[in-house]
Amino acid sequence: MNTTKSRNFLSATLILAGLMFYSFSNLTFAQEHKSSCCGSGMEKDVVAVSDVSGDSTKKMDMKHDMHNVKMEKQKSEVTTSSVREGKIDLIAIDKNKDGKVFQCPMDWNVISDASGKCPLCKMTLKEVTLSGAKKNLKENGFKVK
């Protein structure tokens, strides 16, 4: 009988420890999430939601949805600014008139006048001359002005 009580106590203790760990890990994840991607600029929106709903999961979901909309907008702005379509005008892209642009070595139509990463494949853009960029574009089936 004593052994059964010990086993039950041990089982209950392990279950309780697991629940506490699960709760703590979720809390830690929520805090990391807030600081890493949703921490700035949206606190007022979450406070307004917290007055209506006491469910923290709903608050986090709504906050993260707002974050996703913000990130998609930024992504589309970056994509449209450096992904070129149609007839590509390299001279217009070279805003500082130094005769060089930055081009993705994988997505040849991703061209910018500033260094950075390709919004499509995340590779670092390589600096090339205008004639080099033109050659790369033509060899890969793109039209150049």
Summarize the structure in words.
It is rod-shaped, with a radius of gyration of 26 Å. It has five helices and five strands, in the order H-H-H-E-H-E-E-E-H-E. The protein is mainly α and 145 residues long. It has helices at 2-36, 43-52, 56-82, 90-93, 130-139, and strands spanning 87-88, 100-103, 111-112, 126-129, 143-144. Helix 2 runs antiparallel to helix 3 (56-82).
Outline, from the CA principal axes?
rod-shaped
Instruction: Specify Rg, calculated over alpha carbons.
Output: 26 Å
Number of domains: 2
Structural class: mainly alpha
| Average pLDDT | 74
Q: How do the strands of the widest beta sheet line up side by side?
A: 3-2-4
Uncertain spans:
40-53, 74-80
How many E-type strands?
5
- The H/E string reads HHHEHEEEHE
Give a quick precis of the structure.
This protein has 145 residues and is mainly alpha-helical. It contains five helices and five strands. It folds into two domains: 2-79, no CATH class; 83-144, no CATH class.
Quickly list its features:
5 helices, 2 domains, single chain, three-stranded antiparallel β-sheet, two-stranded parallel sheet, 59% helix, mainly alpha, 145 residues
Write the layout of secondary structure elements.
Elements lengths: L1 H35 L6 H10 L3 H27 L4 E2 L1 H4 L6 E4 L7 E2 L13 E4 H10 L3 E2 L1
Parallel strand pairs: 1-5
Antiparallel strand pairs: 2-3, 2-4
